[in-house]
Amino acid sequence: VRLRAFMENDEAAQSRVIATDIADSWAREFIRAVVAAEIMSVYSNHTFQPEGFVRKGDLAVALIAAWDSIGNGDGIHPTTNGVIVDVSPENRRYRPAALAVSLGLLTIDDEGRFEPLRFVSGLEAGEAVDALAERLMSR
Description:
The protein is an all-alpha fold and 139 residues long. 39% of the residues lie in helices and 0% in strands.
C-alpha cells in the first residue's frame, strides 16, 4: 500500500498471478502487484498466505527486491563490513540483510545480530516499508 506510487500498474501481469488464498483479502490487489513485479512470490502450492507471519530475513528479501525493482538498485552495495554476526556472507540472505541495514530499513542489535528467523511485528514491517518509501522519494 505504501509503495503504490512507485509501482507500475501492469494489469496484464497482475491478471496472470495465481494465488488461491487471496480472493477475500483486503490486500489482494497489492499482493497481485508485488507478485507481478517479482518483489514477492507465491508458494509452490499457489498460496500467498496473507495472514502468515513474516520473518525478518524474508522482510529483508522483499524490501531489497522492491529496492532493486523500483529504485533500480542505484548500484548500492552493503556497507556493514562484516558487522552482521549471525548471517554469513555466503548465506543467500546476506545481501538483502546487509543492504537493508545499510539503507536504514532494518536494524541489528548491539551485538551485531540481524536475527533473520525472528518474526517481525506489523509495526516493524510498516516502519521498514515507510523507510523504503522515504529513501525512494529522496532519490
